[in-house]
Structures
1.
Amino acid sequence: LPAFAEQFELFYLIALPLIWIALDSGISGVSIGNVVVNFGATYTLLRLGTDPVRLGEFQLFLLVISITSLLIGVVRSERTQAIQALAENEKRFRALIENSADAITLVDANGVTVYDSPAAPGLLGYAPGELIGLSAFEFVHPDDRPQTIELFQKVVKTPGAHINTLLRFRRKDNSWCWLEGVAVNLLNDPSVQAIVLNYRDVTERINAEENLKNSEARFRTLVEQLPTVVYINPANDPAHTLYVSPYIKILLGYTAEEWTEDPNLLSKSLHPEDRERVLAEAEQLKQSGKTHNS
């Protein structure tokens, strides 16, 4: 081999461009490169009248280099595809976050904010990046803070755990808003390494529910003070009582609970001479849905 090495030493350098092509262009580039280099080198040596034995040795060398470069090209192509796929996934994920009406915040195991989606600061009135590096618990209402910290610690202890929560959070103007969301533990996920908080402002809904409760309470208080019986029956089932005021006890001797639990109590309480007429009127009311005086 020393004579072979001496005669073809410069040709060994063809391994360098093949490896470079494999690293730069992957499997497609190195495949074309192998064809061109092998054909060109073999043709040149034949034109130079190279000894067939030495030519065979050189072709064996080319075969080894070709296989090596192809393997490098395959690895390079797979790595490139993986990087491209990761970039596409990241692009879709970022587009999803940036255009989501819900806010997304990432916090570390201590509750310190490390990332806010574009919707998060605006939802609460803060400037972009203003909450980064601050503990989220500092902004939770004092009455909600102990329970929030307790739930957060449970999530931190269990990888993959998630929990729903409803709490009050301080806005930039120091007013309080209700936030409803879910916390997911992705601390062990290499691509996230954080607790993911996905939440929305439900202040209007909570206020509406509270107003409805207050309205119902006022209605109930008013009805229960009236010196008459007020009852609520479904339109499609007049015999079934949903609610009856406490005055039923004074008027007929039955408690409100007894009246609502026994759907036949109304029929039993009617005078035999009135029963058929009243039940017929109830059926007519059911069919027409109109107001009826009896």
2.
Amino acid sequence: LTSRANLVAVVTNGSAVLGLGNIGPLAAKPVMEGKAVLFKKFAGIDAFDIEVAAKDVDHLVEIVAALEPTFGAINLEDIKAPECFEVERRLQERMRIPVFHDDQHGTAIISAAALLNALELTGKRPDQIRMVINGAGASAIACAEHYLRLGVRRENILMCDSKGVLYKGRKEGMNPYKEGFVQETDRRTLAEALVGADVFIGYHDGSFEVEEAYATVLRGLPGGLQLRAGKYRVDFGKLNLLHPHAYSFMDTPLVHQAYLGEEGLADIGLNLNWQLAIGSSALTVSGNLLKGD
């Protein structure tokens, strides 16, 4: 008899906003308003954006838990790792309504769909591929955990953060969640990790230098991936590349899913001024418009 059943709270403290990092709750408000619009547009769900000035886990949990009488569900957004894992766990234990962290579960679901599509197109099984994940925050770890459920072998995942590969015995920049993906390996950089990889997935944020990142990727990948500045044209050659999350050279968040195999571009959804070229076939993306020949 009330609006509660169809009302979601989009909650953030602005500590890890996509492409922008720790910008705080006020600066995060336009992003959260956009999320609320998506709920209404695509699912008919009413949503309020709630930006909370609370960095401490205990404080944030108390505030969100107190909202339970008003909302039918809680959608956590853009809360940095590792705090986000604790916030979500405690709220799920305490609240009697669904609590969902979009950065983790939303990204895991859509990237897993792209991964399964790529595997089907290449005729490979999940347990056969070697995967490199660049980024070790909430999205990366949640996605990696989901890929394990699909059959990817833990020992076949090399995860990197801003300090390099997560290897056994590393002390700098580690936390209990990253420890779950350490490997016994002598590889230390992203370029080294990429040698022989079947899948590359990027979850790096805006603090990761884009040009440096892609230069590293180009050096590490096999088969002639080349980048040319200016119009941002990328010639991929014959590669198997899955990259559902990256950033453009214009410092604008670029979210895409693409599979590139021996037959060329099989599936793609991007935005913002990119050209992808494979041999004589090219796709040009401007805004949300996709054109191909």
3.
Amino acid sequence: CPEKIWKASRRGMVTRSGMAWFTLTPVNDTNEDAKYIGWLYDQIYSRADGNRIEIIEGSTYDNVGFGATQEQAERWEQDQFGANEVATRVFGKFTHLAGVVHKSFNPKTHMLSANDFPVIEKDWPRYIGIDPHPGKGHFAVLCAVRPDETVFAYDSVHLNNVQDFAQALIEKEPMLTEPELSRHCTLVIDVSYADKGSWTNDATFENELFKAGIRATMLHSIKHPGSLLQGIQIVENFLAENRLFLHADRCKPVLHEFYRYIWGPTGKPLRQNNDYLDCLRMVLHMGANYYPLI
């Protein structure tokens, strides 16, 4: 379906609040296909919230008597298509989603509306993952841990100026500056950029946060040759066990990265669409545990 046809059809539905249904197999056989599939993914699939936009995915195996069998699908992979395209033709996944990093993520399960999201209690410890970038801005995901060790990502931040970034963190989490409560907050900062003297008059990133009044514990992220893949697996475990939930409105940028963060040909994820997810990974990898406020 060309995008211009969708736009024309959508205008025709406005006055009567019409509904649109798309049935498709999102295969990129040609450049023209890729163009059509691209806008469908960006404008519709990636914005699914289970309310205004709902995605129903099925497998050819569900079409008993008419769809392909598992044996046929295995022959497709060996003789005609690659593994990713077979995943598209058999399970209806967008071609690039067949290689998505966090396959356990389900927006219907892990994204909670404002009405369903719990009240963040004062005694829940706060963990804030921060990915600083002198060039493209600074990213943060704010999390709180419930006594049952469930993690709730309740907000996100992206700002270019470090001073503005610090003030935004304080506005979203006032505990960061309160003497008796700031010790219940931990900042996990990407070690790759945190201590670089390229911020303001050679000050470190942590110093800029401290000058803004933030008194939370500041830690560098875990980094060793296998830490990235280890951290990704930890995020996957939290998702699979339904111990990680995100605020649907305040963490929309994180949702978009879950859909776009994909594996590269080297067996590692591509270094794109991962700024917020890096923040989340650093928090969970560091060990986001509940401990009482004393």
4.
Amino acid sequence: YFLKKMFGVWFIFTTFVNHYSGRKSTKNMNTYQTVLRKMRTEAQTPVQYYLSLEEGELPMNDLLGQQLTLRFAGYHCLHCGQPKEIYRQGLCKKCFFEAPEVGEWIIRPELSKAHLGIEDRDLAYEQQVQLQPHLLYLANSSEVKVGVTRKTQMPTRWIDQGAHEALVMLEVPNRYLAGIGEVALKAHISDKTNWRRMLTNTLQVVDLNTIKQGLKAFLPQETLSYFSEEVPIYHINYPVLRYPTKVTSLTMPKILQYQGRLMGIKGQYLLFEDNTVFNVRGHEGFVVEISFS
């Protein structure tokens, strides 16, 4: 009787802990339920990836070669915290059109106006983000592209884009200057990543320094004093056992559950043995259950 009673207490306790920690354990299986956010990265060789959990982080590199099961379990807006359907960038539709962290100047930095004291959605937030050092850079993921990021996001931004090399062109004091530099160069070089070529590791061999010098003539006059002459090319290596030969995108909730062997991680994508790829950042705000042995 005593043993049965103690077992009952133990069972209730472990059920409570597993439920509220987001973790479940079955025989030879670990299961976590979490709200997806983009994976945190550490710039090592290769890049180290960590998936955010309610109780900590899951080191994704340790799961290479293992069978993973991903199951859609709902939504959680990263701004308001409500279980509303995700519209874009981890936010529900209402928050997407109201929250300052997804203003149009994020995607189009040339629209930044905090340096003029003009508010878009929240001037204090916009001044905090826009009025800090920014980089205009070249990144080579599948082909060379131009982009903008905050200096504090180097090299995180390049890793998230799946670039294998990158080079700074300008270091400017605010987002607006980086933005007008990007607009000027977009007429001569792409500002998009070909994600399919990036994920199949179809690389373009180029000399970034030569391209950089060739593009200098197209930069706006007010940015030229910030041109970075002597900076090294940054190289990135990803944890991939085998690249897919073609890619099939896993999109939730169109597909509610998927199982496959994890063969690599590049950018913010999980790469599986059957050529399926899963964009973690593209599913921010999705509640997903992840299981592995």
